[in-house]
Amino acid sequence: MSSHPEPMYDIAQLGHAELLTPRLEESVAFFTEVYGLTLVGEDPGRAHLRAWNDDILTSLTLTGAPEAGLGHVAWRATSPQALERRVAALEKHDVEGAWHDGDFGHGKAYRYTGVGGHIQEVYFETEKYVPPPGEAAGPSEPAAALRPQGRRCCAHRPHQPAGAGRRRGEPLPAGGPRVQAA
Predict the structure, then answer these.
(1) Rounded Cα gap, residues 154 and 172, in angstroms
(2) Which among 51, 73, 74, 46 has a CA at the least distance from the CA of 62?
């Protein structure tokens, strides 16, 4: 038998986050003007924004509140069955929560307080983003559009073990191994 547990693939992605803010209008302006998020919906005291390359309707909800903080984070399950399995796993670990009918951009969800004290929820059904006529949903060439620009010090590079390309016993070059940028 293997000592490694079977990987779980029940959580597809971090679905969205809710930030509480005492300055709602200024926060909306910050996330749209500085980060370039798109305002995709509003309801009393809340604004829903989307990051450019997300395929779901909303990435971030800003909620007016007396103090700044984290409202909740939401995890999207890979299937309705995966959602049920994760809720069963939460309950097995004595994490209590409650189902709700859903919110802006997603269907029913199970909301709970995680072990660190943060409010979280897990859901499956989600509304996909549909761009208005004439607007692209994301990059037409994803690899080119998302390629880091400018200095390449932190760009993603193919993994090469330390000392790759040198013969056994040969010392590492001064400053460590050199990895060629992609």
Answers:
(1) 21
(2) 46
**CA–CA dist 125, 56 (Å, integer):** 10
Domains detected in the chain: 11-123 (3.10.180.10)
Structure tokens at 73: 């984070």
DSSP assignment of the chain? --SSPPPP--EEEEEEEEEEES-HHHHHHHHHHTS--EEEEEETTEEEEE-TT-SBS-SEEEEE-SS-EEEEEEEEESSHHHHHHHHHHHHHTT--EEEE--BTTB--EEEEE-TTS-EEEEE--BPBP-PPTT--SS-SSHHHHTS--S--TT-------TTTTS-TTPPPPTTS------
pTM to 2 decimals?
Answer: 0.73
- Which pLDDT tens digit goes with each residue over 5-28? 878 899 999 999 999 999 999 999
Tell me the per-residue pLDDT of 132-141, one tens digit each, with 9 for 90 and over: 888 766 654 4
Structure tokens at 2: 């293997």
